[in-house]
Amino acid sequence: MLAFFKKWNFLFVFFLARSRTVGELLAPTSPFDKKCGRENWTVAFAPDGSYFAWSQGHRIVKLVPWSQCLNNFLLHGTKNVANSISTRLPRQNSDSGQKNKPCEHIIDCGDIVWSLAFGSSVPEKQSRCVNIEWHRFKFGQDQLLLATGLNNGRIKIWDVYTGKLLLNLMDHTEVVRDLTFAPDGSLILVSASRDKTLRVWDLKDDGNMMKVLRGHQNWVYGCAFSPDSSILCSVGASKAVFLWDMDKYSMIRKLEGHHNDVVACEFSPDGALLATASYDTRVYVWDPHIGVILMEFGHLFPPPTPIFAGGANDRWVRSVSFSHDGLHIASLADDKMVRFWRIDEEYPVQVAPLNNGLCCTFSTDGSVLAAGTQDGSVYFWATPRQVSSLQHLCRMAIRRVMPTSQVKNLPIPSKVVEFLCYQI
């Protein structure tokens, strides 16, 4: 019977629409390279879309100008060996000071890289630190930083334009599994670690650690800010999904529903939805304001029965990402498939094959999905694109400024309230 359902799953996925491959960045290999340490645990796009970064394995992070990378795919075909791309991209001289011209960098982080995050500053956004008289770094409006989380618990902060190391943050005692910058330009950085804690850093205060968030009883796998930077979601082992108030640094609530470790999370662009991915073969879409599951995207048919609710090993969901149109979600699972979902449909709208995938994220404009694999390579696909309805655009505009409780108090028809709350 199990073999029958696996075959049914395969046939169902086979007849779905396939996503178009945009390009590949293949990590260089040599016969003496160890397989352990080559994993690409994280990929990231700069907030302004100027750069793409990924962990190439063996301590190396590659930074490439994204627009030039896309042009190379068009001119030279989809396949590129990661180090050979440098023959077609200008390399930055550290002393040139040409900050307005994106250039490629290869960064040796000194240890295995588990996490990456871009951060950009807004000068008028004040630091929360007490000492404002003197700082080692003065971040300007054009500042773009890259944070790397390492196997030894350190976090290194790099200047994207020059490739220079700016800060070395040391407080975690285990692997730094994820990093996220506050989207408001404050350069507040949150790190998630296997030491069961989240730590909040203020890079405008020279990397001062402001707060330690405790509550997880096991490894913390991931974290994500809401678009307005007021809420932080953290996920980890033992089915944990926590929401934190980032003004008070206190826990808001714990979301319960997953049946296995939760490994990834991301908010929708309007902050009204939260997607979480778990080893229980499911992606849940929550209303984070009231803690209710609105949608479930299963990667195993039929869904696991209660006695096997933890899911099947070959269907573990590794990563999830929200598109910037607020309509599409991408998920990556151990069944060698990337799936694209619409938030109002039960089944994937597109799929793409991928062996040994570990992470995925949408480009800044939402037109491309990047996915990293165990051998340090990156694969890119064109994403489902359509013109958003006027109703959806209005819903996103309203939900950016109104939580669910306020929407439900509006003097409007119940069906409109349900639509604004993503319940229909």
The overall strand count is 29
- Strands of the largest sheet, in order across it? 5-1-29-28-27
The helix content is 10-25%
Round the Cα radius of gyration to an integer and report it: 21 Å
Oligomer: single chain
Number of helical stretches of at least 4 residues? 5
Distance between the termini: 35 Å
Largest sheet: 5 strands, mixed
Global mean pLDDT:
86
Q: Hey, roughly how much beta strand do the residues contain?
A: 35-45%
* Structure classification: mainly beta
Give the low-pLDDT segments: 1-8, 10-14, 84-98
- How would you sum up the global shape? globular
Organism: Accipiter nisus
Protein name: WD repeat and SOCS box-containing protein 1
GO biological process, one term: protein polyubiquitination
WD repeats: 139-168, 169-211, 213-254, 255-287, 317-351, 362-381
